[in-house]
Each structure stands twice: as C-alpha cells, then as structure tokens.
Write a structure and sequence with these properties.
The complex is a heterodimer of chains A (491) and B (86). Chain A is built from 21 helices and no strands. With 491 residues, chain A is mainly α. Chain A has two domains: 213 residues, no CATH class; 240 residues, no CATH class. The longest helix of chain A has 35 residues. By secondary structure, chain B is mostly helical. Chain B has one domain. Chain B is 55% helix and 0% strand. Chain B has five helices and no strands. Chain B is globular and about 35 Å long. The termini of chain B are close together. Classes of the chains: A mainly alpha (491), B mainly alpha (86). At the A-B interface, helix 10, helix 14, helix 15 and helix 16 of A face helix 2 and helix 3 of B.
Chain lengths: 491, 86
Amino acid sequence: MSSAADVVVSPTEAPAPIFRFRIIPQLDTYPWAVRFAQTIPGKILLLVLAAAGFYACRGDWRVFTVILAATTLLPQYRRQIVMASTILYTVYLTWTSWFGSFAGQSNNGALMGTEGFAFTMFFVAVTFALAWMLFSLASKYRRSLLGKRPILVLLSGFFVFLVIASWLPMSNHLRDIVFLSLTVFGGYIWYIGYSLLDLKSQSPDPFWRQASTYRPMWSINATPYGKGAAYWRRIEAADAEQLAITQLKGLKLLAWTLLLRIMYGPLQYTLQGSLSIPSVPELLGRTRYNVPYHWYTGWESLVAAFLLDILTMSITGHFLISIFRLAGFRALRSTYRPLESRTVAEFWNRYYYYFKELLAEFFFYPTYMRYFKRWRRFRMVAATFAAAFLGNMIFHFTRDLMFVRTQGLWNALISFQVYAFYCLVLATAISISQLRHRQDHPPRGWLRDQLWPVFCVAGFYCVLHVFDTTDRSMGIGVYFRFLGHIFNMFT
Amino acid sequence: MNPADQIRNFIQGLLNRRRDKKPFADDSSLLLSGRLSSVEAVEIGVFLEEKFGVDFADIGFDQAKIDTVDQILALAGLAKTDVSRN
C-alpha cells in the first residue's frame, strides 16, 4: 500500500510470475525480456516502440527519439548526452514559444518574434551564469549565509529584485524585458535551489552536471520532475541490466500514458459533450452574474473537473517520467493511484509527488529541523504550513509573474486571494491529517478502515478543487457563493 | 533491546502504519524507493534526534542520509561493526 513501492526497479532475481493478467505486461520482471533489452536488436526494438509512443503523444517525437537513441546506445556518455540535450531542448522550446503555433499566448507583453527569442536566450544564459556563480560562492563559503541558508538567500534575492522591478518607473517596453528576465529566472529557481542543496551532500556533482538537470526534456515546467542532481545520482542505472529494467519500466509507463490518453477523449466527450456538464469556470461566471443553475449541476461540474484533472496530471506525469526512465533513471511516478489515498496527506503525496517533494525539501524539512523543537505537535503544524501554505504560494506566485507585470505587485498579491485561501485550507487539512495519522488504532473493518477514508479524502479534495485555481479574474466571494450554492445554502 | 534493533523496530512500525507488509533488509531503500514518505522521513529524523542526539540543524536534513537502516545506523554513530557487538 506504499505510495510507489512497486514502481521502483526491482532486482531481476525476483521469481517470474507464472501468469497473472495485467493490462500492460510486467516486462521488467521477465528475465528473458530483461536479457533481450540488453542486446542491440532489443535496444532497437525498445526505441522503435518508444518512438511509436512518442509519436502518438507529441508532435516533437523525433527530438525525444533521437536523444534517447543516443543515451540507449551510448550509456557510458549518458550524462554528457543529457547535458547536450538539455541545452538543445531549451533552445528548441524557446524557439517554439516565440515562433510556434502558440506564440501569441506567451504573455510577454509587446515582445515578439526575434526580439523575444533573443532576449529569452540571453536571459537563459544569464540564469545559468548566475546559477554557476551562486553554486561556486556557496561551495567556497560554506559558513556564509549563502552556504548555510541557500534557499533563503535565493528566494529573498529574487523577491527584492521583483519589488524593485515592480516599483521603479520605466517604459512599458523596458518593463516587458525586465519581467521576461524575472520570468526566465523564476522558471529555473527551484532547479538552482536543488543544486545549492546538493552542496550539503558529501560529494556534490560539479556544476556542469547540475546544469544538465535544469529543465531537461522530461521536466518542462517550473516543477523539477526528477528533483536535482543528488536524486539523479541515486537513481541512475549503474549497469546494462539495471538500464534494461529501467527502460522496460519506462516503456510500460509510456504505454499507460497512451491508454489514459485514449480514455481521456471519450470521457471528456461524455461528460462535457453528451451529458452537457458545464465547466467550473462557466458556472463561476454564472454565479458572478447571478445566472441561475441547479445546485446539482455544480456538483456534476466539480466532480467532472476533479476527475479530468487527475487524469490530466497522470498523463502529463507518466509521459515525462517515462522519458526520464527511458534515459536510464529509475525515477518514481509523479502520480500514483491518488484515489486510493486514505488520508489527506497521503493524497498529496500520491497526486503530484515531485511538487510535494519540492515543498518538503525547500520548506518542510528546514522548518521542522530548525524551529519549535520543544513543541512536537506544533512543530509538525508549523512545518506543514511552511510547505503547503507558504511554499505553495511562493511557488505559484513566482511562476505567474505576468500578473505582477500587468496588475502591479500589490494588485497581483490581492488577486492571489483565491489560491492563498486554497493553500490555507490545504495546509490546515494536511496538519490535522498528520496529527490524526499518528494515533494508531486497532482494525475496524474494511468499510471503516478502507472505503470510508478513501471516500472522505476524495470528497475533500473534490470540494477544495473549487479554490484550486490561479485565475485572477474573480474575487474569492464568487467562489464562496458557488460553494454555498452547490450545498444548496443559497441560490 | 539494542539500539540497532530499536531502529529496525521503529522502521517496522512506520511500514506497518502504511500497511506495507513487505520485509526490509538493512540495505533496503525506504525513502527513495517510495516505501516511506517525507512525513515518515521527518519522524525518523526526530527519532534520531531524541534517541541518539543527532542534530540535523547542524548537518542539514537529507532523505538520502537516512534511506536505509545501514545509513541510519551510521548517522546514529552505530556502524555495522559496532552494532554486531551489542
């Protein structure tokens, strides 16, 4: 029942199952499959299957295939290939964001085309240079504030620069450029944080290895899928057999991704097409302008949005981790059966593992290990609030800097109220969950110990989903009215 | 009960709480494998602080340092050779 125990690469000496039906066969547990995956024909077959999977999922399937072919056929140069692929993929993504089909949605003000691309690439280079400087300084001066509290220094520096950029008078064009620099740096801030934390290890990786973990092709947003270099070191396949097992697991996860994608279309069509269930934003709009709808329509909409959201998280996470595994790293899944969670805290661990890990490593552990040592229960609550409330808000605020550019710092903070409330409720619920979880009790039967907790946890997150939005167009009052309406408290 | 067994029992208790019945060896990965989560990592940290005087505020808290029983024993100053004497 552990969160991801069975997704870890298991030793090959485990006995092969005689026959057990699985939608996707457990190829990584079949000795013949593991042996075959170590041969050249086996590697080629594995790459062909992976390429077919990428082709079904993404337009840029060729990029993944070529890079994974290199890491598969030349595993001794894996890190160098990953480093090169991180640079190439960064250039490729930047290019598509300014010249691709969705270039108009880049939220970078008046910056466009070549100018935007050139500035972005320049700021990416500056970000890597700054990261190297911080890494070198923290490494050299370990007893300094930067050496001892690197995350505090990193985040404080970022926010000081953000405040200055928000308040200094400047032309709109210059403001767009300054905020582009902040957006680029903000996109790397947690990756750099992991590098600085790695300096506390006994033998941290050199900077070039750290830099290859900065938004590699399987970690395309601000959340580091696969954490940092310290984690990579521990999960990297050490020999041909481990690589084969890891890649077979990656292939299985890619197959799961495809299966879930196939399910997603008909499910979405049924819910929002055939059953005509309106979306939550649409109902919030109706609430705002007092357009009537049935209270149970709100529930239909909320449950549909919750289920589709979990499916989307699973598809995204599975796809990215499948690439990571195919590259030879035994990474845990990002989403693992969240609807089986029996506690609020467990759901968070299962729903978005790498985001939870980020908050745990940057906020939870430092708070827990440093403060309130004499108050055991309060210590847990304080650390949980540092992560699920403060850390969660900081992550999303730094991620969505376009609101600061367009609304100004103060208004951006005010309009963040809905997500701030979400974080507050989440942190409170996780704290209570953790304190209750510590109280062991004798078995009370399947219904009370299994089904009821699962139902309650899913129900809680489904209701909380109302506030799980970083949309800034409506005040929190609209969300409360929507919530009150679905509980039939007011129309 | 010797200190090493205290640690093993504590880990067993954490696994039991998660309904994890699989056995674990001294070199089995507990945290990085996902068998235990961040919250249990902290509980191990607190256990080491309280029972063995380990101060994570000085050395920094890192899941990788307490991923296996062997690593926990080493951190608690109970390397395998010492443990076998108990």
